[in-house]
Write a structure and sequence with these properties.
about 400 residues; mainly alpha; two-stranded antiparallel ribbon; disordered N terminus; binds heme C
Length: about 400
C-alpha cells in the first residue's frame, strides 16, 4: 500500500512518454500506406478499365494472353512482394505484348494501384495456400476436435466450426481466434488439454481444412477498404502499453517490428497471436488491463495498420539492401547510395516511403522509361529476386545524412 503514491505519479509520466513516442513515430511513418486500405470493388473495376483483363484472367475469367492472377499460384508464398517482384521481372515481356496488342500502358496513381492490389489480394490471398489433408490431421492432433465438431463429427463443448459461415478468411479467422481464446483456454484447462502451438505454416493448413468444410459465403470483401489510421488508434488503445513498434511503446511484450522477424502472412500472424494468447492474457490480468475484443471492421483495421508497418512484408537489412542495389544493377543509374545520377533519379532520402504498393505504383508509372534507358545503354533489364524486397525497402527507407 505504501507504494501507491509513487505508482500514481509514475503511470501518467510513462503514459505521456509513450504517447510522445508514438506521436513522433507516427509523424515519421505517417505516409506509409497499406494495400488493405484499397477498395477491392474499385480494384475490380480498374482491372477491367486499365486493360489488365485484356490479357490476364482472375481464376479463369478474363484474357488468356498472359498468366491467371487469381487463385492459388505456383509461387505458393502468399505475400504481395512476390506479386510485385514477378510483375517487375516480367515487365519487358508485358510491355512488348502491350505494343503487339495495341494496348496503351494506362497511367495509374498510387491510390489506384492500392485498389487494384486490394482486389488481387481478395482474388488470391484469401485462398492462402495450405494443405487440406494436413489441416485435417492438425485439427485432430492439436486437440480442436475434442471440443469442436465439423459437420456433426467431434466434440460438443464449442460450436461446430463448419456451421459458422464466413469464418474461413484470414481476417475473420484471426478475429474469431483472438476473441474466443480466453474462453477456450478455460475449457481446455477443465478438460486437461494443453494450449496447442502452431509452427510456421500449420495455421495455413488448418485454415485450408476449415475452408474446405465451411458452408456459406465468404465475407472478407465487406471488410475492405480497411482503415489503418483507425487500426493505429486501436493499437494505441489496446496494445501499445506492452508492445513497441520500431522501438517505441511498451516492452512487456516483444517489439512487433523487431529486426530479424521473418515476414508472415496474415494467417501465420493469427497463429502467432494464438500461440502467445495465454501468456498475453496473463500479462493483461497481472496489469489489470481489460482484454480487448474486436468486432466489425476492427481486426481488418488493425491488420491494415500492421501491414503499413511492413509487418506482413519482408523486413530487411539496410546493408544487404545497399549491396544488392549495386549487384542487381540499380546503382548504375540511381547511384550506389540511391542518391541519383544523370541516368536516373534519386530514390532514397526524399521522405518517400517504399513498400510493395509504392514500388508497384512507381514502377508502373516510370518502368517503361526505365526500360528504354536500359535498352539505350545496352544493359539487361535488372531482375529482382523475391527475397530482395525487404532489404531493398530497408535501404531505400533508411534516413540519409
Ligand atoms: C497486353 C497484355 C497485358 C496487359 C494489358 C497486362 N499484362 Fe501483365 N503481363 C503480360 C505478360 C505477357 C506478362 C509476362 C508473363 C506472364 O505472366 O504471362 C505479364 C505479367 C504480369 C505479372 C506477373 C505475373 C506472373 O505470373 O509472373 C503481373 C502481376 C501482371 N502482369 C499484372 C498486370 C496488371 C495489374 C495489369 C493491368 C494494370 C497488366 N498486368 C496488364 C501481359 C499483359
Ligand atoms: C477445450 C475445448 C476447446 C478446444 C480444445 C478448442 N476450442 Fe475452440 N472454442 C471452444 C469454446 C467453448 C468456444 C466458444 C467460446 C466463447 O463462447 O467465447 C470456442 C470457440 C472457437 C472459435 C470461435 C467460433 C465463433 O463462434 O466465432 C474458433 C474459430 C475456434 N474455437 C477454433 C478452435 C481451434 C482452431 C482449435 C484447435 C486449435 C480449438 N478451437 C480448440 C472450446 C475449445
Ligand atoms: C498486458 C500486456 C500485453 C498487451 C496489452 C498485449 N500484449 Fe501481445 N504479448 C504480450 C506478451 C507478454 C507477449 C509474449 C508472450 C509469450 O512470451 O508467449 C505477447 C506476444 C504477442 C505477439 C507475439 C509476438 C512475437 O513476435 O512472438 C503478438 C503478435 C501480440 N502479442 C499481439 C498483440 C496485439 C495485437 C495486442 C493488442 C490487441 C497485444 N498483443 C496486447 C503482452 C501483451
Ligand atoms: C538503365 C538505368 C536504370 C536502371 C538500371 C534502373 N533504373 Fe530505375 N529508373 C531509371 C530512370 C531513368 C527512371 C525515371 C523514369 C521516368 O522518369 O519515368 C527510373 C525510375 C525508377 C523508380 C521510380 C522513381 C520515382 O520517382 O517514382 C524506381 C522506384 C526505380 N527506378 C527503381 C529501380 C530499381 C529498384 C532498380 C534495380 C532493380 C532500377 N530502378 C534500375 C533508370 C534506371
Amino acid at each position: 500500500m505504501r507504494h501507491r503514491p509513487t505508482v500514481w505519479l509514475v503511470i501518467p509520466v510513462i503514459a505521456l512518454a509513450l504517447l510522445g513516442g508514438v506521436l513522433t513515430w507516427q509523424q515519421r511513418h505517417g505516409h506509409s500506406r497499406s494495400f488493405l486500405e484499397g477498395d477491392p470493388v474499385n480494384g475490380a473495376f480498374l482491372f477491367e478499365a486499365k486493360g489488365c483483363s485484356h490479357c490476364h484472367a482472375i481464376s479463369g475469367s478474363g484474357g488468356h494472353i498472359a498468366s491467371d492472377l487469381g487463385g492459388v499460384t505456383p509461387f505458393g508464398s502468399p505475400n504481395l512482394g512476390e506479386l510485385v517482384t514477378s510483375m517487375w521481372n516480367h515487365a519487358p515481356d508485358m510491355w512488348r505484348r502491350m505494343q503487339e496488342e495495341g494496348v496503351q500502358i494506362a497511367p495509374m496513381n498510387e491510390g489506384e494501384v492500392r485498389d487494384l492490389f486490394a482486389f488481387l489480394y481478395l482474388a488470391r490471398y484469401i485462398d492462402e495456400p495450405g494443405d487440406v489433408a494436413r489441416g485435417r490431421l492438425l485439427f485432430e492432433s492439436k486437440g480442436c476436435i475434442q471440443c469442436h465438431a465439423v459437420r456433426g463429427q467431434g466434440g460438443k463443448i464449442g460450436p461446430d466450426l463448419a456451421a459458422i459461415s464466413g469464418i474461413d478468411t484470414p481476417i475473420e479467422w484471426a478475429q474469431a481466434l483472438w476473441n474466443h481464446a480466453p474462453a477456450m483456454e478455460k475449457n481446455m484447462s477443465r478438460v486437461g488439454v494443453s494450449w496447442p502451438h502452431f509452427e510456421k505454416s500449420e495455421m495455413n493448413d488448418l485454415l485450408a481444412y476449415v475452408r474446405e468444410v465451411v458452408v456459406g459465403p465468404r465475407s472478407e470483401a465487406k471488410l475492405l477498404p480497411a482503415d489503418a489510421r483507425h487500426g493505429r488508434e486501436l493499437f494505441n488503445k489496446s496494445c501499445v502499453v506492452c508492445h513497441a513498434v520500431h522501438g517505441e511503446g511498451g516492452h512487456r511484450g516483444p517489439d512487433l517490428t523487431s529486426a530479424g522477424q521473418s515476414p508472415m502472412s496474415m494467417v501465420q500472424f493469427a497463429g502467432v497471436m494464438w500461440n502467445h494468447s495465454p501468456q498475453m492474457y496473463q500479462a493483461m490480468n497481472a496489469s489489470g488491463i481489460q482484454r480487448p475484443v474486436f468486432g466489425g471492421q476492427e481486426m481488418a483495421d488493425l491488420m491494415a495498420f500492421f501491414n503499413s508497418l511492413l509487418y506482413f512484408e519482408a523486413n530487411g537489412s539496410v546493408e544487404a539492401g545497399r549491396e544488392l542495389f549495386t549487384s542487381r544493377g540499380c546503382g548504375r543509374c540511381h547511384g550506389t547510395n540511391a542518391q541519383g545520377t544523370s541516368l536516373g533519379p534519386a530514390l532514397g532520402g526524399r521522405g518517400r516511403y517504399f513498400n510493395s504498393v509504392a514500388l508497384a505504383a512507381a514502377f508502373w508509372r516510370h518502368g517503361p522509361e526505365m526500360y528504354r534507358r536500359t535498352e539505350t545503354l545496352g544493359i539487361p533489364w535488372p531482375k529482382l529476386q523475391e527475397n530482395d524486397l525487404g532489404d531493398l525497402f530497408a535501404f531505400l527507407n533508411a534516413k540519409r545524412e
